[in-house]
Design brief:
The protein is 57% helix and 7% strand. It is built from 8 helices and 3 strands.
Length: 193
């Protein structure tokens, strides 16, 4: 007979096998130690937990299902281990599953609300094409403004580094989250100077 533990991971509640809990706890602690000198440590760890919760939700089919050791090991393989961080180039990384692409409004390359830029990233098309389509629709039936506003409301804005990776179709690994947070900090510091 095994014990289970109720845990909160990334704002989601899970029932975790005791062995799986210890492995997951050790994994997160090792990342916390690895990131100790990183200025975006808290944001990286929060994004990691959110991604781990998403991966567990994909594997837990019914409410109350126990997260097992094999599920935790699979998630750790997807996320990557601290000792692998920065030790190999992007081409040699192995990920289980394909990167998931999701449509978000792009706040970094926006003209108005980031709708066209986000759609361009999602469909891998230059956002200028979408901007021209909306402008043409505006002058023909004024429907471009209405459609743009509806999409602005319906499409969520990419706020976190994990969402921005997802928007670009990059795998959401700890190393990619770390790189995205570092890029954001560099952009902020370069704007201040």
């Amino acid at each position: 007979m095994k014990s289970t533990i109720n845990v909160n991971i990334g704002g989601q509640s899970f029932v975790v096998d005791e062995d799986a809990y210890h492995v997951l706890s050790t994994y997160l602690e090792s990342w916390e130690i690895n990131l100790s000198g990183d200025s975006g440590k808290r944001e990286i760890l929060d994004d990691m937990e959110a991604r781990i919760a998403e991966l567990f939700l994909e594997r837990v089919k019914i409410p109350g299902q126990v997260v097992t050791l094999s599920m935790v090991e699979e998630v750790i393989t997807i996320m990557g281990k601290p000792d692998q961080a920065g030790s190999f180039d992007e081409g040699s990384r192995t990920h289980t599953g394909k990167p998931y692409r999701r449509m978000y409004r792009d706040p970094d390359n926006r003209f108005l609300g980031g709708v066209c830029s986000g759609m361009g990233l999602y469909w891998r098309v230059d956002p200028i094409i979408f901007r021209l389509v909306f402008i043409l629709a505006f002058f023909t039936f004024f429907s471009g403004v209405i459609l743009y506003l509806l999409l602005w409301i319906a499409i969520p804005k990419a706020v976190t580094p994990a969402q921005k990776l997802e928007m670009r179709g990059e795998p959401i690994t700890v190393e990619n989250i770390r790189r995205a947070v570092a890029n954001e900090f560099n952009e902020i510091f370069s704007k201040k100077q």
